[in-house]
């Protein structure tokens, strides 16, 4: 009882500070998502990425290193936040009281970062075949990943090793609560992670757990009766970890309005059941429409139909944008087919001229509709400058 009173009466202010910080960030994310109850089920990808979720592509290709730090402060939905904050409220005070506030903050940040690094390293190419065990740790999709779970498992790892390392000096109640007493909880959480693999980032959990255990092997705790003074090294590390977290969110703020990577836009639209339209789709469409009009112009002015078949194939292969764009593309393909037939099948010059004039009148109406689409819907796609081609005049 003396041991318990000496330890458990210590303050745990940084546990409360972390709780407030996580809830505050969650409220900001909720407001950015529209502040409706519907978004509490799952925040949009744009919000998760804007606030600093881990995305391998952005870390690897754009060197956004702060995404190793910020994910431990953000959560994907309300349930995710509630589970992690309850766990922090249960586990955090014990670690902070046993080791002191400075060490607690360092444990949280270091194990959280290592958890994110583990998550980063376990994303593999999409064509890799994963068995049941492989799918427990490895992921074939680079989706936004976030949450305090890695840091929480780090605290559990600290208490697990603490209970074993100091078992000879701990009273019976502490022996039962920590050390091997945590094994059932650890095994249960890993089992849940196995069942829900694909949804739970088990690599981050294990990375944090192992990191916390290793740290606790070499770090001593503050025993009952010891004065509260701490080594300057731990104070410096504590300040450094807090500064690193603040800098991470400052960097995230500087890139807050960056567009989503194209593959995430596609994934998002697939999840929402929407038609996938990406910048590369727009460019492909514009290029095919331009080449098709050039082929039609050659057929009309020179009787050269050599490029028509390729232009028709390109039109058929371009991605769908919207119903109007699809109809314009289909009509242009029909004009190409008719132009080739006029050149190859019409027997007399008079009939050929009459057929060209008839198609020319229709084409003028098509060109008007196409220009109208470019100046309205097409402008939203950013296609206006890319499609200032000269329309043929059959």
Outline of the structure:
By secondary structure, this protein is an all-alpha fold. The protein has helices spanning 2-8, 13-32, 45-51, 56-62, 78-99, 101-121, 132-137, 149-165, 172-177, 183-195, 202-218, 232-254, 262-271, 279-302, 308-317, 323-345, 349-375, 377-381. Helix 5 (78-99) packs parallel to helix 8 (149-165), helix 6 (101-121) crosses helix 12 (232-254) and helix 14 (279-302) packs parallel to helix 16.
Commentary on this structure:
With 394 residues, the chain is mainly α. It has two domains: 2-260, Rhomboid-like fold (Up-down Bundle), CATH 1.20.1540; 279-387, no CATH class. It has 18 helices and no strands. Helix 6 crosses helix 8 and helix 6 packs across helix 11. Mean pLDDT is 85; it is low at 383-394.
- Please give the radius of gyration in angstroms: 31 Å
Overall pLDDT, averaged? 85
Helix/strand-derived class?
A: mainly alpha
Unreliable residue runs: 383-394
Overall number of domains:
2
> What's the CATH superfamily of the largest domain, by name?
Rhomboid-like
CATH class category of the largest domain: Mainly Alpha
Whole-Å distance between the termini? 97 Å
Helix content: 55-70%
User: What's the main sheet like?
Assistant: none
Tally of strands:
0
Categorize the overall geometry: elongated
Give the name of the CATH architecture of the largest domain.
Up-down Bundle
The helix/strand order is HHHHHHHHHHHHHHHHHH
Number of helices: 18
CATH topology of the largest domain: Rhomboid-like fold
């Amino acid at each position: 009882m003396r041991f318990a009173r000496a330890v458990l009466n210590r303050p745990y202010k940084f546990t409360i500070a972390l709780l407030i910080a996580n809830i505050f960030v969650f409220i900001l994310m909720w407001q950015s998502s529209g502040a409706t109850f519907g978004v509490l089920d799952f925040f949009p990808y744009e919000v998760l990425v804007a606030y600093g979720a881990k995305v391998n592509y952005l870390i690897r290709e754009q060197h956004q290193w702060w995404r190793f730090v910020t994910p431990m402060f953000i959560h994907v939905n309300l349930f995710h936040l509630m589970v992690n904050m309850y766990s922090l409220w249960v586990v955090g005070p014990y670690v902070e009281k046993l080791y002191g506030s400075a060490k607690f903050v360092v444990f949280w940040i270091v194990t959280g970062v290592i958890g994110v690094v583990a998550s980063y390293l376990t994303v593999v190419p999409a064509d890799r075949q994963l068995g049941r065990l492989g799918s427990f740790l490895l992921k074939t999709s680079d989706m936004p990943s976030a949450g305090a779970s890695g840091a929480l498992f780090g605290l559990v790892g600290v208490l697990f090793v603490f209970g074993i390392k100091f078992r000879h000096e701990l009273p019976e109640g502490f022996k039962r609560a920590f050390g091997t007493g945590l094994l059932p909880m650890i095994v249960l959480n890993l089992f849940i992670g196995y069942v829900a693999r694909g949804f739970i980032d088990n690599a981050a959990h294990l990375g944090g757990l192992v990191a916390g255990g290793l740290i606790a092997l070499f770090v001593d705790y503050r025993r009952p009766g010891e004065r509260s003074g701490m080594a300057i090294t731990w104070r410096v590390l504590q300040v450094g970890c807090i500064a690193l977290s603040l800098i991470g969110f400052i960097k995230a703020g500087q890139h807050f309005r960056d567009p989503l990577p194209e593959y995430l836009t596609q994934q998002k639209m697939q999840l929402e059941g929407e038609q996938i339209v990406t910048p590369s789709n727009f460019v492909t469409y514009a290029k095919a429409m331009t080449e098709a009009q050039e082929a039609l112009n050659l057929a009309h002015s020179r009787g050269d139909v050599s490029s028509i078949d390729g232009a028709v194939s390109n039109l058929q292969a371009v991605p769908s944008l919207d119903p109007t764009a699809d109809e314009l593309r289909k009509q242009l393909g029909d004009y190409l087919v008719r132009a080739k037939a006029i050149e190859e099948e019409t027997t007399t010059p008079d009939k050929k001229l009459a057929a060209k004039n008839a198609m020319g009148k229709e084409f003028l109406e098509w060109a008007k509709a196409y220009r109208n689409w470019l100046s309205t819907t097409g402008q939203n796609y950013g296609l206006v400058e890319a499609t200032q081609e000269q329309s043929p005049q059959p």
